Amino acid sequence: MKLKSISAIALAVVLLTAVIPARGDGDKSPMPVGGWAAFQAKVVYPETAHKIGMGGEVLLHVYIDRNGKATKMEVVKGSSETGFVAAACTAIRETAFEPGQRHSTPVGMWIAVRVVFSI
Question: pTM of the prediction?
Answer without folding.
Answer: 0.78
